[in-house]
Design brief:
alpha/beta, Rossmann fold, N-(1-d-carboxylethyl)-l-norvaline Dehydrogenase, domain 2, NAD(P)-bd_dom_sf, 266 residues, 2 domains, elongated, eight-stranded mixed β-sheet
Length: 266
């Protein structure tokens, strides 16, 4: 890939909570950080305003202007966003897919946009406004160049590999991490629902208490974490399940978690 300008124009699709944080983090190295206004909500516009991002009319305009495009969206929309960008993306531009998707999904995006200009990204941690909370793992031919854009800054950017065959490695890491961060906690939701349907809730709680298990705390923690996010996490668990199935690892944990998050979102 060709090198980026000293002060590249960077486009964010789209500035949700994480996108706004990524956009803000990139301002120190960017000539401008832009986002596509068309069809976005007032809440998105407000986040972009607070992060001091510059609005452009639509995705086509953003793709035509940006030297680097960062896609950070709900997992189910990752491919669609890449397709929207494909027709207008500059030949020298870099595309960072920072979505929680399966390796095969990001490899498909690389095949669409060009494997030498797609960077596979995985954010592990919350939207970062200060150093020490969140790691951004990057893989693929553009990984090192993209990592430099985040230094210094609140996201700890780390490179997993820089070969074309490394596209998918960051997404694979994200899928593995999601097994413990998002799939395992849903065991408490399944346990509580099963006990209620068997009519043994009080007896189960008594046994858990007797064994020193803080079931109430665990339930409260997962319910608090997934509040307003369950619909998005369902999609992430679907992608994690696809990732596991593709390498022959049982995917039932993630499939069950996806279903439990979908129920919680309704």
């Amino acid at each position: 890939m060709s090198s980026l300008p000293p002060r590249p124009v960077i486009g964010i699709l789209h500035p949700g909570a994480m996108g706004a944080a990524l956009g803000s983090a990139l301002k120190a190295r960017a000539g401008a950080v832009i986002w596509a206004d068309a069809g976005r909500t007032h809440a998105t516009a407000k986040r972009a305003e607070l992060a001091d991002l510059i609005a452009v009319p639509d995705v086509a305009e953003l793709a035509a202007r940006a030297d680097v495009i960062v896609s950070i969206c709900p997992p189910h929309a990752a491919r669609e966003i890449a397709e929207q960008v494909a027709g207008s993306m500059r030949e020298s531009a870099v595309y960072v897919d920072a979505n929680a998707v399966a390796p095969d999904t990001v490899r498909g995006i690389a095949a669409l946009l060009g494997p030498d200009r797609v960077c596979d990204g995985a954010v592990i941690g919350p939207p970062a406004w200060e150093r020490g909370t969140t790691t951004l793992w990057l893989s693929g031919p553009c990984a090192a160049v993209v990592a430099e854009l985040f230094e210094p800054g609140p996201f700890d950017a780390r490179v997993l590999g820089t070969d074309p065959g490394d596209v998918g490695a960051a997404s694979g890491l994200k899928a593995c991490f999601a097994l413990q961060s998002k799939a395992m906690p849903t065991l408490w939701l399944a346990l509580e629902e099963a006990a209620a349907r068997f009519g043994v809730t009080d007896a189960l709680h008594a046994e858990l208490d007797r064994n020193g298990v803080d079931h109430a705390g665990a339930l409260a923690a997962i319910r608090t974490k997934m509040d307003g996010k369950a619909w998005r996490w369902a999609g992430e668990m679907d992608e994690a399940a696809d990732a596991l199935a593709a390498i022959g690892v049982p995917d039932g944990f993630s499939r069950a978690a996806a279903e439990l998050y979908r129920r919680a979102a309704t």
